[in-house]
Specification:
mainly alpha
Amino acid sequence: MFEREDRLRDVCLAITALLTVAGTVGTGFSPYLLVEMPLVLIALSADMRHLVLVAANTDFGPVLALGVPRRALGLATMYGLGLHYGPTMLGMLEEKAPRLGGVLAWCERLLARRGALILVVAPAYTFGALAGIARVRPRWFFPAMFAGQTLYIAVGYFFGEQLRAFTVPLLGFLKEHLVPSTVACVVLVAAIQVASRLRTAKNEG
């Protein structure tokens, strides 16, 4: 029993780390990927800003087909970690965002009372963890989570379609300055990662 739970925890932690690295790489190389391989960008990082931007040069069907599983995998692993760690994970989340501590606890109680339907309108990764902490049953979690992610992808894409007058010229600029814009983005993302780790090490010390 405990061995199986530990194995599940290790798998969830490994997938979370892999997805974090993928998201960081996708963001760092986003200028190049937006222009040359927008679907690869969505597979690496299906964040709202990327969904909005790829709507200018990519069909909705492939974006949905890649974006929903990418985000669903992230939420499922957070759900698994929430199930494993329980209230301890709520404390970890509150440490990372102390200003939201009361809000996170309130959301966890809301999930426990109202169930997984909240995930349809709040499809954030944190809510996946909170659903696990609240012991939302898998049979309710997964359908609501997939519905929420489908809605998230659709909203991001169609919002991007409304902004084509702005995003098409932006993509044109990136295409003309592909190498310098990508290098600048990689350097910026790397600097943010280094600063984050230094801040974490300082707080732990």
